Amino acid sequence: MKIEAGYIKAITTILVVVAFFLSGCGPGIPVREKAKIEEHPGEHESPDMQFKFAGHLFHSGEYERSREEALKWLARYPMHPLKIRVLELIGDNFFAMGDNIQAFSWWLRAKRESSDNLQMQEDLNEKLNGLVEISELEVLERLAEYALGTEYIPKIYHKMATVFLAREEFEKAKVFAVSLIRSTSDPDWISIGNEILDRIQDVMSVRKGVVGCLLPLSGPYAVFGEEVLNGIQLGLGVSSKSSYNPIEELVIKDTGGSTDKALSGLEELVRKEKVMAVIGPLSSRTSAAVAENADFLGVPVITLTQKAGIVERGEMVFRNFLMPSQEVACLVDNAVIEMGIKRFAILYPDNSYGTFFMNLFWDQLEELGGKVTAVESYRLDETDFADQIKKMTGLYYKRPDSVLTALREKWTPEQEENEIYPEDPVPIVDFEAVFIPDDFQSVTMIAPQLAFHDVLDVQLLGTSLWQSPKMTEMISEYVQGAVFSSGFPQFSEEPDIINFIEEYTANFDSMPGVLAATGYDTIRILKMVMAEKENFTSKDLQKKIIDLENFQGVTGKTSFDSKGEVEKDIFLFSIAGKKITQLH
Fold first, then answer.
1. How far apart are the C-alpha atoms of 305 and 320, rounded to whole Å?
2. pLDDT for the residue 238
3. Burial, 399: exposed, middle or buried (Cβ in 10 Å; 0-12, 13-18, 19+)?
4. pLDDT confidence of residue 416
5. What was the pLDDT predicted at 83?
6. Residue 245: enclosing H or E segment and its boundaries?
7. Contact of 212 with 269, CB cutoff 8 Å
8. How far apart are CA 48 and CA 65, in angstroms?
9. Is the CB of residue 266 less than 8 Å from the CB of residue 278?
């Protein structure tokens, strides 16, 4: 069991106690008086000095002797004003000796008798609550016997109910949740107890063969949601090695790209449909909102988003989609280390995707010693890229005399002849590659214009956005040798991938992209882990997903780390002729 924040409170409280005795009940006893008490403790007439002596023993680590002296003090002076302090001291000694049950008992007795001392009430309350926080089940059961009828019993029952719930001992968790509700009239505690009962009911009544989907099937992102859903539906029909098909029903909720719809859909999937797991959402905002609630609702959620840090929102949250950092790292490593390119230009669309990938590419490039020598952006509706290319090659602005002088020094005889008979200025191509984080349709417009402006023999680099069902139809001479990264080896000759593409095309009359392939693999992962055991909880499912190793799907090998982050293959492709070949 993990020690919670209350442990720190308990330690702090002990330090307060130590400080108390240091200030007046410990070393401050005069040496002669201390010797006198040690020699004849029962005969000493001062209750105050005997109390200080017991405190001195506590401070010295002689907890057993300190406790004995404090008990003798109580027998001698049962009505003395220092009684509350002595009761507290006995509890401190038991706590120091590791007997939390007796410590709780004595501190509770001290609190009952300190009703007119607010500071003592506060100190003892902190100790008692801290002790409940750090105690394990066996101790909590004993503490409950002492705490009946006090303000601490709801806290004890709550702690026991949540521990049993975490252990998936649902019947025991239910007993203590009910005990919590019955132990108090405080509406806040009653509400907390009812929430625990609701969670237990949700977990115990989950429908074993039902999986939910949260996808944008209307609105601006509908085309993406439909592609994922096509892949999921195709994956459901794939025959398993086992005759047992664990997924009997797929419940689909349309988020419309809305956070509110995503949250209400999640609530309905869990509360009403009793799903075992949820696939989706896709967008950053909806995924973040759903991830925040997955743990509370107790349902594993496999998101298909690139949002950074999504799996840190809860233990039930997984991601099955490549992170941009993973994709770009693979591309940069190949360009710098394997291809030996050192100088790069970046030409990117002026939108969130383009800006994000521009910065990511630049940062990772510098880590490997590469250099960006030209950067330009363009509008989304741009079709003429002449201005951007001219700016990248020093043709847009008038060149300073110093630059012209430096260029003349490097001119060949042919270039000197051109100076006598002037032609258009020669572009300064101070880069070996151009990174274009945009779709392939934009790339097919940019590449010919680079050649037109004499930007020749440069390596074109791109992201998975290049991967388009119509990509092979758009290949031209200007994109030969271009390299891009992707999480789906669409152009592989592997039989499983070819079969998937053929089956998808036959069913949906279009080529599958990375979203369809990811949806296909995600549902097949759930089928596999759910087939291993017929009767298990959502928590079991969460553990099985984490334990998954190298699931071989159409998107390559897939595993999840302990936080739920996906570990996937990343593929690089190159264009050669009218074909796209896989580099690795």
1. 8
2. 52
3. middle
4. 53
5. 93
6. none
7. yes
8. 17
9. yes
